[in-house]
Amino acid sequence: MNLIGREGSILLKTLMLTFYGVALSACQTAELVFYEHKPSKRFYQDLNMGDPLLSPFFDNGVLFVASIKAATHTEYFFWIGVYSEKKEKVKINKAIVMGSGLNLSKDLDIEVFSRQPTREYDAGNPVKLFELKSSWLGKASNDDGAIVLDVFYEIGGKEGKKRFVLKRRVEKQTVFST
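Structure (tokenized):
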């Protein structure tokens, strides 16, 4: 015995299709933007200081690596890590981030001790250099999809500079509303 009849069945199917259509249309695409320095990214994956890709980022036995992390969907933190087999005092004097004719400079006076790479957290290493808005980074990486980070430092009275080219990478992900 059919309780809802043919018209009720058609109405039920129509309502179900409408519901599924509304549910699917509620899905949105989100863009996740990353700024990556390939040698530094590889170092943080393996913690291998012997990787030949890292050789330009050594000075006096100290390895400098850059990391950029999204703090929120509108703000990024720029970090510099210093690592070596033996403990070395490194003074970070200045950092400049630039791209597409824009630049920001920050004078620093931060002393940090290099350490051997481990997965353990160390409050003093890496050092936060900048907190930047995603809107500024988008403009700065507009021309070629990259930004440049220069870090000026001192080890044992000798001054140096390391340059990191950070490539912009975008991932699109489907987001379902809740």
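The first strand starts at residue 28 and ends at 36. The domain at 31-175 is CATH 2.60.40.2420 (Immunoglobulin-like).
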